[in-house]
Amino acid sequence: GQSLEQPSEVTAVEGAIVQINCTYQTSGFYGLSWYQQHDGGAPTFLSYNALDGLEETGRFSSFLSRSDSYGYLLLQELQMKDSASYFCAVRDVRRSNYQLIWGAGTKLIIKP
Amino acid sequence: DADVTQTPRNRITKTGKRIMLECSQTKGHDRMYWYRQDPGLGLRLIYYSFDVKDINKGEISDGYSVSRQAQAKFSLSLESAIPNQTALYFCATSDPAREGGKLFFGSGTQLSVL
Fold first, then answer.
1. Which of A78, A94, B46, B48 makes the best surface tag, with the fewest CB within 10 Å?
2. Which chain B positions have a beta carbon within 8 Å of A104's beta carbon?
């Protein structure tokens, strides 16, 4: 089958570093995306990994290991505005037109 | 101005009513999507369209229909709303040639079916 697993909630302190993990199970893996969603808001794209390794965009980095079916989102120098839900999503070549499979989301709680 | 606009933002309706959610975009993207979001379940694809003449069912299309009136407009209809269709609905667009796999979402429509 196809599935993604990510923790439902993560708590961290302002200024710290936090890692949100995502493991996936699919035979048609093409790439892993990360989206951020604030309460009541729309998901917004953060990053995309198709190849193994680390992609860095400012305070956010995303990592992929295809052999381990695993990726993570790393947030550094946490700010209160980073409090949001973070979704990983896998593009699956076995689905019509490479449709995305979405994780259930990780709620990131940041404490002062 | 929002690139992907959904109307209405909130809607309360009764069981059995027909309702339409509308989406318009100014991004010039050919691909448009309707997703549903329920707490703890992430996003699930209802329908998608790759151009005006191309409409495809997603993983949860039962009870829904769509219309692609123009490149910029994609509407979602619930022919006879039922309470378990209470959810947050998002429209999204994409342009793989220019933006890769990135999806651009509207602000969402919170639908409550009583």
1. A94
2. 40-42
Q: How high is the pLDDT of residue B83?
A: 96
Residue B103, helix vs strand vs coil: coil
Mind listing the pLDDT tens digit for each residue in A40-97? 899 999 999 999 999 998 999 999 999 999 999 999 999 999 999 999 999 887 766 6
Search chain B and give the residue with CA nearest A86.
B42
State the count of interchain CB pairs (< 8 A) between A and B.
Answer: 49
Rounded to whole angstroms, what are the CA distances from A26 to A53, A66, A91, A105, B102? 19, 11, 10, 18, 20
Task: Give residues 29 to 88 of A whose Cβ lies within 8 Å of B.
Answer: 31, 33, 35, 40-45, 48, 87
